Each structure stands twice: as structure tokens, then as C-alpha cells.
């Protein structure tokens, strides 16, 4: 089975956690991307030190300022990517940037709800919109059956069906990820004629700053699984909700 081309990739939220591990494994792959764009809110901050150090070792890593809550910055980042790509396209967009606010009904606030929605739902949609010309160009230039893809990093916590009476409600995070899943379905319908696949992907419960130490999965295990899933994507997966093992999740 032919793998999805990964000649040019953008990973958002790339300075820590799963985003940083995605960058590590992509750049160290047998056939690494020619361009590996990495977006984070503040590339010069101490929190981006590991990413900057990776970029010093690998010239194909391009570190860019990308705040998915800032529409002007999203467009500026897209313009930078277009300038570097010249007439080439973007094969893979991984919308990984996200925030987590816990809290049941007694704790949730309108501020945490709106911040979650802007970052976890609207952000990925607007990043995809800004980079659509580059994604379309990748699809048009490729003779391969798998041309370009948008991966929205979701969560099983966004599944309405999986929420039962034993689950923590965690309003802000769950609602924003459920909304992101609808964004995925809408994008999948609209982008399919352009040869661009779109899926929601649950990375598992991972030991990160967001996932906590009790999580059963390491970053390395999760990302290894994610990249295997990406290598097997086909038209039948368009608009799907998959986990890091490639298993389908209920909406």
C-alpha cells in the first residue's frame, strides 16, 4: 500500500508534548520531509528550546511563530510557508495545537469555554483555510493516489457516544473536541473533490504535560502509532474518527 506523501509537513503546537515528538520522529524517519514546518506560539521562549535545538541539527525544520488564536498571525505564517514552498504544495497539515481546561458545571466558566473553542475548534479550521491553496497545490502536482491530508488531533473525550454516567464531564475540553469532530466531517466533504483527505485522530491517553503522569502511553508509543496510521490512509478513511492504532471511534 502506498504511503501518504510527506514531502512537506506542518505541525502546529510543535514545541512540546506530542507535537515535539511528531517533529522528532518525522525528521528522523528513513525518508524525512523536505520541509518540516513547526508552529508554536512563542518560538523564542524557554518552552521552545527543545524545538530550536532540533532545528539547529536538521536544516529541513523551519520554526515559525503560529498562534492559532490569532487570525493575522495565522495568515502571516501561511504566507511564510508559501514563500518557502514557492511552487510546491503542502502534503500534510497536522492540527495539533490545543488547550485543556478541566472542570464540571460548578467550575466551568464562559472564559474557559470560549478559550477552548477558539483554540481547539476554530484554530484548526482557520489554519486549514489559510493553507488550503498549498494543500490544493500538493494534490494537483501529485500523480500519487494519496496526495494531501489534514489531520485534526482530537480526543475520545469528544465522543458523545463514549460519554457515560461514570465519565467526568469536563465541559470545555469535551465540547471543543466534539465540535472539532464536526469541523473534520465538514472539511472532509468540502476538500474531497480537491484530493485532500481529512480525519480526526485520537492519540490515546499520553504522558504529557496535558495528559499527566497517570497516562498509560508514552509520547514515543503514541506518535509511532500515529505515523503508522497516516501511512495507511486511503479514501475510505476520509471523514473518519480514528485512534492511534487505526481503530474507528464512535462520534
Mind explaining what this structure looks like?
The structure is a single chain. With 251 residues, the chain is of the alpha/beta class. It contains six helices and seven strands; from the N terminus they run βαβαβαβαβαβαβ. It has helices at 17-27, 49-57, 71-85, 110-141, 171-191, 219-231; strands at residues 8-12, 35-40, 61-65, 92-95, 148-153, 196-202, 241-243. The two termini are 27 Å apart. The mean pLDDT is 94.
Q: Nearest-angstrom radius of gyration? A: 17 Å
* Assembly form of the protein: single chain
Q: What characteristic shape results from the CA principal axes?
A: globular
Mean pLDDT: 94
Strand fraction equals 5-15%
Which sequence of SSEs, written as H and E, runs from N to C?
EHEHEHEHEHEHE
Percent helix range: 40-55%
Computed structural class = alpha/beta
Number of helices: 6
Strand order of the largest sheet: 3-2-1-4-5-6-7
Q: Could you tell me how far the N terminus lies from the C terminus, measured between alpha carbons in angstroms?
A: 27 Å
Which stretches of 5+ consecutive residues score pLDDT under 50? Answer: none
Q: How would you sum up the major sheet?
A: 7 strands, parallel
β-strand number: 7
